[in-house]
Amino acid sequence: MNKPWVAPFMSPHQVGALNKFGLRPLRGEYQDHIEGNLIEELVQAYGSPLFVTSESRLRHNARRLRRAFQNHYPDVVHGWSYKTNYTSAICNILHQEGCWAEVVSRFEYEKARMLGVPGSRILFNGPNKPAEILRRAISEGAHLHVDHLDELSAIESIAQDRGQPVAVTLRLNLNTGYSEPWSRFGFNLESGEAHEAARRIELSPHLRLTGLHSHIGTFILEPRAYAEQIRQMCEFMAWLEPDGQVRIESLDIGGGLPSQNALQGIYLPPAQVVPELDHYAEVIAGALHQGLSHRVQAGLPLPRLIFESGRAVVDDAQQLITSVVGTKRLPDGRRAAVLDAGVNTLFTAFWYNHQVKLTRPPVGPPQETVLYGPLCMNIDVVRNSIQIAPLRQGDRLLVSPVGAYNNTQWLQFIEYRPAIVLIHEDGQVSVIRRAENLEVMCAQDELPEHLAQPDPQPWRQAVLA
Ligand SMILES: Cc1ncc(COP(=O)(O)O)c(C=O)c1O
Prior knowledge:
Elements: E1 33-34, E2 37-38, H1 39-46, E3 50-54, H2 55-70, E4 76-81, H3 88-96, E5 100-103, H4 106-114, E6 122-124, H5 131-139, E7 143-146, H6 149-162, E8 166-173, E9 187-188, H7 193-203, E10 207-214, H8 223-240, E11 250-252, H9 277-291, H10 293-297, E12 304-307, H11 311-314, E13 318-329, E14 335-339, E15 355-358, E16 367-372, E17 381-388, E18 396-400, H12 406-409, E19 419-423, E20 429-433, H13 438-442, H14 458-464
Helix pairs in contact: 5-6, 8-9
């Protein structure tokens, strides 16, 4: 069949825009609904800005990731990294999908327990575990990932008080050669610090070493980094195990699997190519089978594999609707739009170039535009430069993916934080976090009696007069 005839047209070349060498027609591109819900109706019902979460995408992502690992390794646990997005409904969806909780603070531990996650399904990471929460975590059978020697001593003394040895996992830091090592967490492998910590555990009647953990960084674009991490962890494990005194039951490789977000240039290797998650799983399992051959030869079971993926699971399950509150032209001639969501709401704008879509048909060719947020701060730039059709006040924009690290790192600064809604698998919508209001913002304030009123007291009035 012949292609339909389209009248020839000319469009001006824009600096930075795709041209005839990389043609992608931007004209006509927009999205006015999310999973069957009109964006304008969502805003009318729940306000703007608005985070919109897809239950089906979240469940799909969790299943796909676990299946990818289970296809290659027999015993796999996914610890959901709470810090990535600890909205209760999101956590519970992932728990329903079989994820454990990976927490890094007293708050996150208490939240996981509040949601009903048993201690035995909580991985407790982080450098600050006060004695009170450690005691609770130990009594509830949580998996303790030890960060430093003082923490080890604290655990030992709690175990001694209880009269029962406590199982611990050692957090390791190591250099894979592929990414900047996260050397401030856990015990260093290359220097022998990890070996000393393991000896210290072995010598204590109150402690048992049963697991190894390391997290090599975030947005790891090179699967071989994990293979190297696992090679080093398995080598350490073989060093620990020969006399049978120590038996490592779990190897936790942390998080760091990338999402499809676009890192800004300063964080970007020469070109961002995100490998398939299946490929990571294959490389990781391959390295495990190789590194654990000593176990297999000795007829011993393979340790459990734990991964703590955050952004790869939730990032593309959430989008942000934001509205244009005004437009302007900057002194250098560029167009600018002020949005009602800035870096306070979309904290990850500091390191991602999110996809930004119009929600109505574009009128006019794309133009270089700066997207600002609503804060009275120069740093509040959502996007320094984007090619987008002319914007008008009242336009809604759809920003994605935004599911990772925004609902936890957002700032309560100047503005109320917006609502988060969930689109259920059947298309229904419910609020999973209410928008803040004056009452919420002031809930923690206290006014001593003499400051109950803003008016100056009579004697002060005289001074001020
Ligand atoms: C110990 C640990 N586990 C898991 C994660 C989740 O990382 P990501 O979202 O990159 O998968 C982090 C993030 O910093 C972490 O520190």
